[in-house]
């Protein structure tokens, strides 16, 4: 019996094999067309096609080659595996800070996610990117366990001094921290009084700091000590649908913010 792992290794060892099988799975090709599309030499191409025919992944019809149903299945399965591994590799350095257990979306939905990490030249890169998204949005939703001074100022400028609509849910602890700083508290009170803003309190813990700026969902990824490690953003439809639904669920369970409860 053929070892499936050996077959995976056989295909994975050569980019040319992957490209040829993928090309034939999308439609019949002549050798000349394959040579032009793939860029492989004639001897290499002949060897690949012979190996594929022996495995019944490819068959020849006249001057053309095409993938068999089993060959198309292998091509599709391998493409999915490759895409999933590519996603894991991209997210490997930040996934430890992404609250996957609390996200009702599959891991592969983050395949095209943009990741902004701090660098030596731009140590505040993640925050700056989040502020850019927030400042330029026409409509923003948030559900978060943290609201720092810079983000508060940006939300204030966009919603109170501008035309952005803002709706969101914050933890009670977050509001209590804002109350300790007179400038932040004044800005927050002005947010609450703005006709463009609707904020509520969560009487429960919130496991992420998330925003939705128009069509973009973004997550502040912080380590256990609260240090901002990355900003992850996604425009995937499923991620956005989950994010909007999550904000609505926290909103429905939340309570209105009464500033007087924090000023005693």
What secondary-structure arrangement, pairings included, does this model have?
Elements: H1 4-12, H2 15-26, E1 29-30, H3 31-38, H4 42-54, E2 58-61, E3 64-67, H5 69-91, E4 114-116, H6 125-136, E5 139-144, H7 149-160, E6 165-171, H8 172-179, H9 182-193, E7 197-202, E8 209-213, E9 216-222, E10 228-234, H10 237-253, E11 255-256
Helix pairs in contact: 2-4, 2-5, 6-7, 7-9
Please tell me about this protein's structure.
The protein folds into two domains: 4-88, Winged helix-like DNA-binding domain superfamily/Winged helix DNA-binding domain (Arc Repressor Mutant, subunit A, Orthogonal Bundle), CATH 1.10.10.10; 93-262, Endonuclease, Chain A, CATH 3.30.870.10. It is an alpha+beta fold and 264 residues long. It has helices spanning 4-12, 15-26, 31-38, 42-54, 69-91, 125-136, 149-160, 172-179, 182-193, 237-253, and strands at residues 29-30, 58-61, 64-67, 114-116, 139-144, 165-171, 197-202, 209-213, 216-222, 228-234, 255-256. The strands form two sheets. An eight-stranded mixed sheet has the order 4-10-9-8-5-6-7-11, with helices on both faces. It has a three-stranded antiparallel sheet with strand order 1-3-2.
């Amino acid at each position: 019996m053929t070892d499936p792992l050996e077959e995976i290794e056989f295909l994975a060892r050569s980019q040319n094999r992957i490209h040829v099988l993928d090309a034939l799975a999308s439609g019949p090709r002549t050798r000349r067309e394959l040579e032009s599309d793939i860029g492989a030499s004639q001897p290499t191409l002949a060897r690949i096609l012979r190996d594929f025919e022996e495995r019944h992944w490819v068959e020849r019809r006249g001057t053309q080659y095409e993938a068999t149903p089993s060959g198309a299945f292998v091509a599709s399965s391998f493409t999915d595996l490759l895409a999933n591994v590519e996603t894991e590799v991209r997210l490997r350095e930040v996934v430890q800070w992404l609250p996957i257990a609390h996200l009702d979306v599959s891991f592969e939905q983050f395949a095209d996610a943009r990741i902004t990490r701090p660098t030596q030249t731009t140590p505040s890169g993640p925050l700056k990117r989040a502020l850019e998204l927030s400042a330029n949005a026409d409509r923003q939703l948030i559900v978060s366990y943290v609201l720092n001074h810079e983000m508060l100022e940006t939300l204030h400028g966009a919603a109170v001094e501008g035309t952005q609509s803002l709706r969101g849910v914050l933890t009670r602890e977050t509001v209590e921290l804002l109350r300790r700083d007179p400038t932040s508290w004044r800005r927050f009170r002005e947010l609450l009084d703005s006709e463009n803003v609707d904020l509520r309190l969560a009487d429960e813990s919130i496991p992420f700091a998330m925003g939705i700026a128009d069509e973009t969902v973004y997550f502040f990824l912080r380590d256990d000590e609260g240090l901002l490690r990355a900003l992850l953003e996604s425009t995937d439809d499923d991620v956005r649908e989950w994010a909007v639904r999550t904000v609505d669920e926290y909103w429905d369970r939340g309570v209105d913010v009464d500033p007087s409860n924090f000023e005693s």
